[in-house]
Amino acid sequence: MESTQLDHYKEIFLTCVEGIMVFQRGKVILANPQCTSLFGYSHEELIGMSVENFIPQSGRIAHEKQRSEYMKAPDTRQMGVGRDLMAVRKDGSTFPVEVSLNPAMMDGEQTIITHIIDISKRKQAEDNLKKSEEQLLRYAAELEKRVHERTEELATTVERLKEANESMKKEVSERIKAENEAQIALSKEKELNELKTRFVSMASHEFRTPLSTILSSASLISKYNAPDTEPKRMKHINRIKGNVSELTNILNDFLSLDKLDDGKMSVTLAEFDVCHMLEEVVSELQIVTKPNQEIILKADIQNCIINSDIQILKQVLTNLVSNAIKYSPEGSDIKLEGNTVKNTIIIKVIDQGIGIPEGDQKHLFQKFFRAHNASHIQGTGLGLNIVSKYLELIGGEISFESVEGKGSTFIVKLNSI
Ligand SMILES: Nc1ncnc2c1ncn2[C@@H]1O[C@H](COP(=O)(O)OP(=O)(O)OP(=O)(O)O)[C@@H](O)[C@H]1O
Ligand SMILES: [Mg+2]
């Protein structure tokens, strides 16, 4: 080997950052300067030291065994990879190492060249990494736990909110219900009050007139006690009778209304001739018409036999024709018409009277209701209410058309058979 080349090898040996120790028969024969700084021995001390000196006490016996095994068939191998291989310094302190063994023959002797790397920094870094990893895992676990707890808390809160929402909804609907009930009660009370007012005004008007007539006639009768005053007495007696029967009629209306409201009015169905009934109504009422008023009957009914309650239907028609008479002027005609459309008998009562003001029309069938233009004409405001309830009982219908000052038409519809 050329001397320059040898110098190069020497240079590599001396400057190598790994520790290089060469052993023969287990003893150091060569060590580069890196070994002195690795193990803390001087170069002189190193030479001749046994390999076991560099191994911690606890591993020495095992190492001796392994070494004699290895020496039987030495090969190149890496030590300390995947396990913690430790070396011991002169001062007894230890440090982790990676060692490679390379067998060679030098001067005819089995020689082992070892490369020693101090891996404490790497280990430290690995340890730190491991610690950081562990810490990270701990953080992650902690975070997961917290997220879990928070989720549970949130779920409880959501549950509570839901419950609160539910009870609020319930409360609101209960309140609405209570308000509605109060509203209904209030409107019923209002209706009742209105009814009372209408009744009082009707009663004070309708009862007072006949009662005062009765009273004055009665006191006059007591004065006419001479025999020649008989005609005068009779006149007042008839007046009393007339007024009493008027009051009786009003009371009868009350009674039928009471019965109707309580559902106690019974219906008696039977077949009868409605055309004949129309004639009867005309002849009975013609005698109570105003001067020159005429009731004209025009019946064009296909089949006059119907199945209904004769009393009720007659009362209905009498009531309507009575109204037509009452609310029409002297000398005007009242028409009573009957005809058939498909299976329905339609009876119309047509007058040319005072009519019904438009604003009052929607109240017409209410109890005690009287239109504004009728206040000077006697009436209780019960007739039409009774009529509509009667018709309901026998499955009939009532409607009307009216123009104030021109006249009214009341229309009754009945099922024919
Ligand atoms: N043919 C009609 N023409 C004009 N107004 C009418 C007619 N029929 C009914 N009305 C109006 O409808 C109101 C109610 O009629 P309803 O027959 O119920 O009572 P009334 O005639 O006043 O009293 P009664 O109980 O004596 O019949 C009347 O007060 C009147 O204002
Ligand atoms: Mg009437």
Polypeptide structure, described:
- The chain has 417 residues and is of the alpha+beta class.
- It has four domains: 2-118, Beta-Lactamase (2-Layer Sandwich); 121-203; 207-264; 266-415, Heat Shock Protein 90.
- 52% of the residues lie in helices and 21% in strands.
- The chain has ten helices and 13 strands.
- The chain has helices spanning 3-15, 33-39, 43-46, 60-72, 120-223, 230-261, 274-286, 310-326, 358-361, 383-393, and strands at residues 19-24, 27-31, 77-79, 86-88, 94-106, 109-118, 270-273, 294-300, 305-308, 333-341, 344-350, 397-403, 407-415.
- Strands 1, 2, 3, 4, 5 and 6 form a six-stranded antiparallel beta sheet that branches. Strands 8-10-11-13-12 form a five-stranded mixed beta sheet, covered by helices on one side. Strands 7-9 form a two-stranded antiparallel sheet.
- Helix 5 (120-223) packs antiparallel against helix 6.
- The longest helix has 104 residues, at 120-223.
- The radius of gyration is 64 Å and the shape is rod-shaped.
- The relative contact order is 0.06.
- The mean pLDDT is 91.
- Bound molecules: adenosine-5'-triphosphate and magnesium ion.
- The site of adenosine-5'-triphosphate (ATP) has 22 residues, from helix 8 and helix 10.
